[in-house]
């Protein structure tokens, strides 16, 4: 039976720019980076301390997903701390962390304009 989500895809228009953002600014590590077809690469990145990976790949015909909202959330132990650290690295946030009854969260964007949520566990 299914045991976990192996990876989630992040659509991108420029794989090199996305790779730089997710490794340099977000601190993810390259699991694999190999050619896939004639124009793209399969770039899988590991999230420190997690089993789930992200893939920087846009399937043909899905370019309209670039710059959209990521339907998921990245978890961290301390949203305020992570917000400060990532902001110092140049990650663009929509605003400071927001506190809600269910937890704290902040919205950030990658270079393609994809919007992500970072929230407390």
Which stretches are poorly predicted, pLDDT < 50 over at least 5 residues?
A: none
The H-and-E topology, N to C, reads as EHEEEEHEEEE
DSSP summary: helix tally: 2
Helix content: 10-25%
Number of strands: 9
Ends apart, CA distance between termini:
25 Å
Determine the structural class based on helices, strands and strand pairing.
Answer: alpha+beta
Query: Any idea what the shape is?
Result: globular
Q: In short, what is this structure?
A:
The chain is of the alpha+beta class and 121 residues long. 17% of the residues lie in helices and 36% in strands. It has two helices and nine strands, in the order E-H-E-E-E-E-H-E-E-E-E.
How would you describe what is shown here?
The structure is a single chain. The chain has 121 residues and is α+β, with helices and mostly antiparallel strands. The chain has two helices and nine strands, in the order βαββββαββββ. Strands 5, 6, 7, 8 and 9 form a five-stranded mixed sheet that branches. A four-stranded mixed sheet has the order 1-4-3-2, with helices on one face. A hairpin with a 6-residue loop joins strand 3 (40-46) and strand 4. The radius of gyration is 15 Å and the shape is globular.
Keywords:
17% helix, 121 residues, 2 helices, four-stranded mixed beta sheet, single chain, alpha+beta, globular, five-stranded mixed beta sheet
Protein topology:
Layout: E1 7-10, H1 15-25, E2 29-36, E3 40-46, E4 53-56, E5 74-76, H2 79-88, E6 92-93, E7 98-100, E8 103-109, E9 115-120
Parallel strand pairs: 1-4, 5-9
Antiparallel strand pairs: 2-3, 3-4, 6-8, 7-8, 8-9
């Amino acid at each position: 039976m299914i045991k976990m989500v192996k990876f989630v895809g992040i659509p991108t228009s420029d794989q090199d720019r996305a790779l730089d953002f997710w490794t340099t600014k977000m601190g993810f590590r390259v699991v694999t980076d190999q050619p896939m077809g004639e124009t793209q690469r399969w770039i899988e990145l590991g999230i420190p301390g997690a089993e789930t990976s992200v893939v920087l790949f846009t399937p043909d015909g899905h370019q309209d997903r670039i710059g959209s909202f990521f339907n998921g959330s990245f978890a961290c132990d301390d949203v305020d701390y992570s917000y400060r650290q990532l902001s110092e690295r140049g990650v663009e946030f929509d605003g400071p962390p927001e506190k809600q009854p269910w937890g704290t969260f902040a919205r950030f964007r990658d270079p393609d304009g994809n919007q992500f949520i970072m929230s407390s566990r």
